[in-house]
Amino acid sequence: MIVPMEQLLDRIIQDFNHNYAGHHSLVTKVKKLNSTEALIPLTCTISGFVENSYGKFPKDGNQILMEFNPFSAYLLDFLPKELSEDTYFRKYMLGELADQNSQTD
Asked: 3-state DSSP helix/strand/coil percent for the chain, to nearest 5?
């Protein structure tokens, strides 16, 4: 299945440009992707179901929960070459972004 991830990727790029590139003088800000560059093939394996909302998620609605560490690495394989091969963006995706999202409980 091909999933449009433009909104998610826009947010990641905004965060990188503001919080990472904005604080490191050697890092160049990256440009926003166009909608076709944000189409990511996504194969899913269901590993479990959340039966209760536990106060974080609404009881109705469709949510997919995915651990950010493997997802960040997966996304890099499908991003445009200029992003996936950018040393600082890779470091951000595999390090700071993944760490930041794994700590948001």
From this structure: 45, 5, 50
- AA letter at 39: L
Of the candidates 32, 37, 22, 39, which has an alpha carbon nearest to the alpha carbon of residue 88? Answer: 22
Going residue by residue through the chain (105 aa), what tens digit of pLDDT does each one get? 777 788 888 888 998 898 888 787 778 888 888 877 778 887 766 666 666 656 666 666 666 666 667 788 888 888 888 888 888 998 888 887 766 654 444
User: Smallest Cα–Cα separation from 29: which of 18, 42, 44, 41?
Assistant: 18
What 3-state class would DSSP assign to 88? helix
CA distance 99 to 94: 8
What is the spatial distance between Cα 92 and Cα 85, in angstroms, rounded to a whole number?
Answer: 12
CB 19 within 8 A of CB 38: no
Beta 2-4 vs 39-41: how paired, if at all? Answer: antiparallel
What is the pTM assigned to this prediction?
0.67
